[in-house]
């Protein structure tokens, strides 16, 4: 299965990416909840390097434009469905904007210990949260196999999969 990585850093084939300092990849409250339920045999998200199993970076925590890369983990990787995190993210947004009237928040839940435990344990189970998982891959390090874009790609242009890659990886990535 191919793994994809997006970063504004220009890399070349054979370059290795790894975390050099612990960082929160999403809201620190969600990272703290995940850390409190992390099984001992799972990688620490704050010290991991991330890849995806599909080249739609709008579904992950990627916030900036970047080059797209085909990468391989340098050690066994772990795969998790980031869709488990959505209820926690919605809960935080609902707490910040309690009067929001958008369909996205129709089923948003309050920020409770029960919500944090359910979603964190679901994430760490490695199982999909539903019919449309958004798989992220955590690894100690990633090695660049190939740079897939010659210039920076706007994150929003990858929605549904980056068009230049859809046919090339269709058999390996049977998604949208």
Structure description:
- By secondary structure, the chain is an alpha+beta fold.
- It has one domain (3-166).
- Helices cover 22% and strands 20% of the residues.
- It has helices at residues 28-37, 86-96, 113-125, 163-166; strands spanning 3-7, 16-18, 49-52, 67-73, 78-81, 135-139, 141-147.
- It is globular.
- The two termini are 16 Å apart.
- The model has no long low-confidence stretch (mean pLDDT 91).
Determine Rg (CA atoms, Å).
17 Å
The oligomeric status of these chains comes to single chain
Q: Beta-sheet strand percentage? A: 15-25%
Helix content: 10-25%
- Give a quick account of the main beta sheet: strands, pairing sense, barrel closure: 4 strands, antiparallel
SSE string: EEHEEEHHEEH
Task: Provide the residue-averaged pLDDT.
Answer: 91
| Overall morphology | globular
Instruction: Flag low-confidence runs.
Output: none
Task: Give the N-to-C terminal Cα separation.
Answer: 16 Å
What structural class should be given to the helix and strand makeup? Answer: alpha+beta
Number of strands: 7
The structural domain count equals 1
* Helix count, DSSP H or I runs of 4 or more residues: 4
Arrangement of strands in the largest sheet: 1-4-7-2
């Amino acid at each position: 299965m191919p793994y994809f990585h997006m970063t504004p850093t220009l890399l070349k084939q054979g370059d290795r990416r790894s975390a050099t300092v612990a960082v929160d990849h999403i809201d620190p409250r969600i990272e703290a909840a995940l850390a409190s339920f992390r099984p001992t045999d799972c990688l620490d998200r704050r010290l991991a390097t991330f890849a995806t199993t599909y080249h739609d970076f709008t579904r992950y925590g990627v916030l900036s434009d970047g080059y797209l890369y085909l990468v391989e983990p340098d050690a066994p990787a772990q795969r998790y469905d980031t869709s488990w995190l959505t209820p926690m993210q919605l809960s935080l947004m609902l707490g910040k904007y309690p009067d929001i009237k958008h369909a996205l928040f129709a089923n948003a839940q309050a920020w409770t210990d029960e919500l944090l435990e359910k979603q964190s344990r679901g994430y760490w189970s490695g199982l999909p949260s539903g019919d449309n998982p958004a798989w992220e891959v955590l690894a100690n390090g990633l090695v660049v196999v190939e740079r897939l874009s010659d210039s920076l790609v706007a994150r929003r242009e990858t929605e549904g999969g980056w068009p230049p890659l859809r046919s090339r990886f269709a058999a390996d990535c049977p998604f949208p």
